[in-house]
Amino acid sequence: MVGKARPGTAMLFWALAAIFITASCGSVATQTKLYAPITDELRSGRYQAAAEKFEASKKKFDKKDRFLYYVDSGALYYYAGSYDSCVARLTLAENAAEDLFTKSISRAATSFLLNDNVLEYSGEDYEVLYANLLKALSFAEMGKYEDAFVEIRRANLKLGLLEQKYVGAAAILTRSKPNDVPDVTYDPKSVRFSNDAFARYLSMHMYAALGKMDDAGIDHDLLAEAFETQPDIYDFPLPPVSYAPDSGAILSIVGLVGLSPVKEALNLRIRTDKDLDLVQVLYTDSENQDAEYGHLPWPVNEDYYFKFALPKLVSRPTEVGSIMVYADDSLLGELQLLENVSQVAEETFEAKKSLIYFRSVARAVAKGLTTHKLKDKVDSGGLGGWLKKAAVDVGSDISENADLRCARFLPGRILVADFNLPPGQHDIRLEILDHGGHLIAEEARSSFDVRTGAFNLIPLSLTAY
């Protein structure tokens, strides 16, 4: 006969169960430690070492996260000046994004209770956009303008189809949601971004270099239109760009400064109201304590509180305050902001945020109700009962980590400047100043050949600052 387990044994079992649940659910939390040593290399300006060290970390990325590996690897190789390697990896990133988006939406529709962290990561729309634009910039620097135009056209096409993409996702989710999920329509927010200024800037200069001045003029006008019609993204002055010199030639400088935004957890709490058949989502931070984040109609027969979290984008600061440009020791001027990647990221993330919110609330309520049912069934007496309930709570809370996966090494800001210079060789010097006007770095291009009828491009990677 099998004897009855001793009380101490039962308590030990439930304690170990809680630990096991915590450990096994670690896979649904976003892992970020592997980025620290690569970031240290990047901050020290050792771009090639950063790219190689990241390359060595490939085995740490699951197949479902391959987009993240490819896009960050491609960006690092761009900063290192290894343009062929950059293009190869960003092409793989783009292919992965197209393949994984359909898979992730299908799995999300059929498995509402799956945490987003265990789904395929297909990339945020801004990450895919800048994969195309970094490829275009790489091709431009190699003089492969036709290849660069292909990337720009692909970027523009994706922006044009962005809203339609999430309307389609909404239809899939609405058709596939389980019976116990309330009949709430997932309505993606409209996307107010369809014209990227940096894409127009590159295209404008390449057309001019090919002698297609009418086409260059069209892109110049579209660049200006991007600022006029999208003030939420371009809320700063249009830089004085130029593609047709009054005389001589144009020197163009493109500076990639800082790093793109990262995701952090926005911790929230769900409160169900049985009298109003309502699920309220409340803030938990001290500034907005108990203010409503949102609500959904959902009949629940008890009043409960559940914890859960959503991802939010957070900009990363840069030390760079200004970049001054000198030619042959004469001051030409200063680079101007053309694109704030954080603002592009925020706008393109809006449509997806409603999808994440809809699924996360549905999942949290379903899991929360299940948790309460399990707790009611376990023994409520003594330490053993407490440990059983603790194990149930731990499993529920750990499994609701926000999906914080994102590209870590895309640029944060894009600055440009176009200067009229006489054709010939010039010694170009760039002074990088902090926000207090103090010199933090210098870059030099000795005997840089400025030619008439060419895209005289100097790239500047300052993601280390």
The unreliable regions are 1-27, 386-396
**Number of DSSP-assigned strands:** 12
Number of helices: 12
**Strand fraction band?**
15-25%
**Rg, Å, rounded:** 26 Å
Largest sheet: 4 strands, mixed
Percent helix, as a range, is: 40-55%
Structural class: alpha+beta
Mean pLDDT: 84
Strand order of the largest sheet: 8-9-1-12
Key words describing this protein structure:
4-stranded mixed beta sheet; alpha+beta; 12 helices; 12 strands; 465 residues; 4-stranded antiparallel beta sheet
Provide an overview of this structure.
By secondary structure, this protein is α+β, with helices and mostly antiparallel strands. The chain is built from 12 helices and 12 strands. It has helices at 7-24, 35-43, 47-55, 66-79, 83-110, 125-141, 145-160, 162-176, 197-209, 213-229, 341-377, 382-398; strands spanning 249-259, 262-273, 278-283, 292-297, 305-314, 320-327, 330-334, 336-340, 411-421, 424-434, 439-450, 456-462. A hairpin with an 8-residue loop joins strand 3 (278-283) and strand 4 (292-297). Helix 2 (35-43) runs antiparallel to helix 3 (47-55) and helix 7 runs antiparallel to helix 9 (197-209). The longest helix is centred in the last third of the chain and has 37 residues, at 341-377. It is elongated. The relative contact order is 0.15. Mean pLDDT is 84; it is low at 1-27 and 386-396.
